[in-house]
Amino acid sequence: MRGGRLELFMAQRVALITGGGKRIGAATASLLMNNGWFVFIHVRNSVAEAEEIISQFEQQNSSKAPAEILRADLNNDGALEALIQTICEHDIVKTNGGLHALIHNASIYSSEDYESVSLENLRLNNRIHIEVPFLLTQGLLTQLKAGQGCVIGMIDTSLGRAWKGLSQYTASKAGLRQLMMNLAGDLAPEIRVNCVAPGAILAAEWESENFASIVEKVPLGRAGEPNDVAKAILFLLESTYLSGQIINVDGGWSVSP
Ligand SMILES: NC(=O)c1ccc[n+]([C@@H]2O[C@H](COP(=O)([O-])OP(=O)(O)OC[C@H]3O[C@@H](n4cnc5c(N)ncnc54)[C@H](OP(=O)(O)O)[C@@H]3O)[C@@H](O)[C@H]2O)c1
Q: Tens digits of per-residue pLDDT, 67-89?
């Protein structure tokens, strides 16, 4: 991005959200844009969906969207490095005082009997939920410090519970949770680090049949909306005395008996 277009966004805080093309990530990207943020919408495959977020903003606001789509397969070392480099060298990051938010949202989620989980699947869960947040935060540290940024890890409400067929997923999300809590100490005082733990928001395709029975256990009696999660993210980004916190966005599910 060069020249005139960049000048449009000079006063804006800058966020990167991984896996931001669809679902909760898309709702978050839109909410941030509508609240004065410039958003790097990272995607792997969901380019068309991310373009739709941008065109919706432009139709609703009759102005250029404060966003740019960045594509990378986070399971590829070279692609992750290139993503980091693109952000570090980006004009808007240099001009606007660094990176103000980094949201580790990209995720994989599938159910499989423990006996048959492959090493490859286990490593992919650990890669996307632990290694990538570790390396991406590390690679963007200078920019996050410059922006007095906030890092957010998207975890879930599985901690301490036995979720059938999900050990590879829940163990890696527990790792992300602990990584974020550790970094809240390591990176203070320049960078704040928090987590958002959604409950039953949007079913994965494979769990749509079970979803109604999950929602029955939610005290508020309904599934959450992607925007409910996005609002918690925005709240953490804007609450400059909050670090090391986890917000459960789950309609009370995590405290139900
Ligand atoms: N949905 C829920 O009810 C729920 C409940 C608890 C926790 N959460 C957490 O909240 C966050 C958002 O949930 P969600 O359901 O909206 O997420 P999701 O649809 O499962 O995944 C978000 C994005 O992750 C990206 N991704 C996956 N593998 C990738 C890779 N190798 N490289 C780059 N990107 C990759 C995909 O991007 P592309 O589409 O571009 O390929 C995908 O759209 C996740 O961290 C999830 O664990 C959600």
A: 999 999 999 999 999 999 999 99
Whether ligand 1 lies within 6 angstroms of the CB of 103 is answered as: no
Q: Is 207 in the pocket of ligand 1 (CB under 6 A)?
A: no
Q: State the first-to-last Cα distance of the chain, in angstroms, to the nearest integer.
A: 52
- Sheet with 150-154, strands from edge to edge, namely 67-71, 37-43, 13-17, 101-104, 150-154, 192-198, 246-249
- The pTM (predicted TM-score) of the whole model is 0.97
The values of phi and psi at residue 170, to 5°, are: -65, -35
Quick check: CB of 45 below 6 Å from ligand 1? yes
> What is the set of domains in the chain, with CATH numbers?
3-248 (3.40.50.720)
Please choose from 41, 53, 83, 107 the residue to mutate so as to test ligand 1's pocket, defined by most ligand atoms within 8 A of CB. 107
Q: Is the CB of 128 under 6 A from ligand 1?
A: yes
- Give strand ranges (E) for 63-205: 67-71, 101-104, 150-154, 192-198
Per-residue tokens: 151: 């890092």
